[in-house]
Amino acid sequence: MLENETYAISPERQLTDAEKVLIWKKPFTHKVSEEERRISEEIKRNWNRGEMKITNILLEGDAGSGKTQLAKALSANFGLPYTKVTCFADMDKSDIIGAILPVISSERLEKMEPAEQIAWKALYESEGFQSITEILTHALGITQEQAALKMKQLLRLAAENNDGEAVEYRFYPSEIVRAYQKGYLLEIQEPNVIRDAAVLMALNSALELDGSINLPTEIIRRHPDFIAVITTNRSYAGTRPLNEALRDRVQHTEKMDLPTKEVMIERVMAKTGFQNEKVLGILADMIIILDKTARANAIKGVAGMRSFFYWADAIATGASAKESLYHKVIYKITTDSEEIKLLEEALNNHGLFASLEEAQIEGKKNENLTMP
Fold first, then answer.
1. Cβ within 8 Å of residue 28, ≥6 positions away
2. Is 196 helix (H, G, I), strand (E, B) or coil?
3. Residues 88, 148 contacting (CB under 8 angstroms)
4. Containing H/E element for 60?
5. Which of 71, 87, 224, 309 is the 20 to 30 A CA-CA neighbour of 158?
6. What is the DSSP letter of 52?
7. Which bin fits 193, alpha (ψ -120 to 50), beta or left (φ > 0)?
8. How does pLDDT run across 322-344, given as a tens digit for each residue?
9. DSSP label at 126?
């Protein structure tokens, strides 16, 4: 039996073709982690246990620790469409519930700037069930945060230039509302950056097991299949501790650190095709030491799996291991000369620079011996 069949929570549910496309497909390089297995089993076991049902998950860890990958893997395991919302400091309630936008006449539309025309036309041509940020993101090729700001700009322009004519309005739900109402798996990225208490209150209310959201047009109830996966970074500039009320609504939390050395090597081999276990073992040791040293010295950057992937891939294509260490790993942690010196000292104290050089020399000798 396939793993996603093992964990399916609503096997009788009928999804549209568009919704099926949103279910994440695991690439062949995906390796099931202990966290993924643990969460999947917990949710499956408790799914039909009333108040013991697990529907809100918190993944807390450093950038590159695999939080989003895990959220997507849960989408595949449960057979739920995956979507996400990236929170930002100045979010307001319209970013949580959606917005009511005016339907502007074609004459007024022609007087607007090209970018505004594209945005409005994309909105009017949508089916109405897409979130406004999703529509603007695709139409204008911008980020989710930029789309939220563009929405506010469009509203302001429409209000300033109505020429006294009667205006028809249409409600566009947020991505949160869409997932909430239709029963998707929603990743909520970095809610701890939100400043407005009213926004957090609206989010808290939505995450109640039997919660509801008051829209301008109706009150909607939480779909029984809706799962929220909250992902937050530790030690990240601009963040604050996760709101206590929001944390209280979470039924399962994972502290996402670097995986074990063996798992790190296995994932990099699968991702990059680089198979030199000895070199990869030293690279993994270096990543682990850099991560620990950065934490111990309150250096803000992170040495994580993402850096490991790109560093190993650079070496696999012939780059110098030591030189690419700086471009792929250290400079992502910090470019401060004093902090770099601390990181270099830690690697030297563990003999890792010397070990890496020896392993590379040995690898080149072996390559020369196998050459015809």
1. 270
2. coil
3. yes
4. strand 56-61
5. 87
6. G
7. alpha
8. 999 999 999 999 999 999 999 99
9. S
Interatomic CA distance for residues 231 and 281, integer angstroms: 29
- Cβ atoms of residues 84 and 176 within 8 Å: no
CB atoms within 10 A of CB 220: 17
User: In terms of DSSP H, where are the helices of the chain?
Assistant: 3-6, 17-22, 34-46, 67-78, 93-97, 106-110, 114-125, 132-140, 144-160, 175-182, 197-206, 244-248, 261-272, 277-296, 305-316, 321-325, 331-333, 337-349, 352-370
The pLDDT tens digits for 135-190 are: 888 888 888 778 878 877 777 766 665 565 566 777 878 889 989 999 999 999 99
Q: At what angle do helices 197-206 and 175-182 cross, to 10 degrees?
A: 10
pLDDT of residue 161: 58
Question: Side chain identity at 314, as an amino acid letter?
Answer: A
Give CA torsion, residues 286, 327, 354, 300, to 10 deg: -40
Both structure tokens of 334: 């910090």
Distance of alpha carbon 238 from alpha carbon 232, whole angstroms: 12
Could you identify the residue written with the tokens 């089916």? 127
* 54 Cβ neighbours under 8 A, 6+ residues apart: 42, 43, 46, 47, 251, 252
- List CB contacts of 192: < 8 A, sequence separation 6 or more: 87, 232, 239, 240, 241, 242, 243
SS3 label, residue 112:
coil
Q: Which of 59, 85, 53, 54 is nearest to 73 (CA)?
A: 59
R_g of the chain computed on alpha carbons: 24
- The backbone region for 64, taken as left when phi is positive above 0, alpha when psi lies in -120 to 50, beta otherwise, is left
Q: Report the alpha-carbon distance of residue 47 to residue 227 in Å, rounded.
A: 11
CB 338 within 8 A of CB 352: no
- For residue 330, give both structure tokens: 């250290």
| Residue 256 contacts residue 65 (beta carbons within 8 Å) | yes
